[in-house]
Amino acid sequence: MQFSRILLTTSFLLGVFYVLTNALQAMGAATAALVINVSRQGIIFIPALFILKAIIGMTGLVWAQPVADVVSLVIAYVLYVNTSKKMAIQ
Predict the structure, then answer these.
(1) When comparing pLDDT for 54 and 2, which is higher?
(2) pTM, entire model
(3) How far is CA 89 from the centre of its chain?
């Protein structure tokens, strides 16, 4: 039960994450969208598994997904803002 609650802590952010990713794709920034998707399940998630397990044990394995979600959302937002600014200048 505790693991389910941990995983659901960031579930409300996934909608925002996917909207930002799809907006980047629609703006023609396919590379940025690819980076975001790869980072969520690979570049951020896998190291988070090892780091959080070393810090807080087995519960760290469950917290790795919410941490990866939050970090990926921040990256998505930054890339979205940067792409929006570039498009506004052109």
Answers:
(1) 54
(2) 0.87
(3) 27
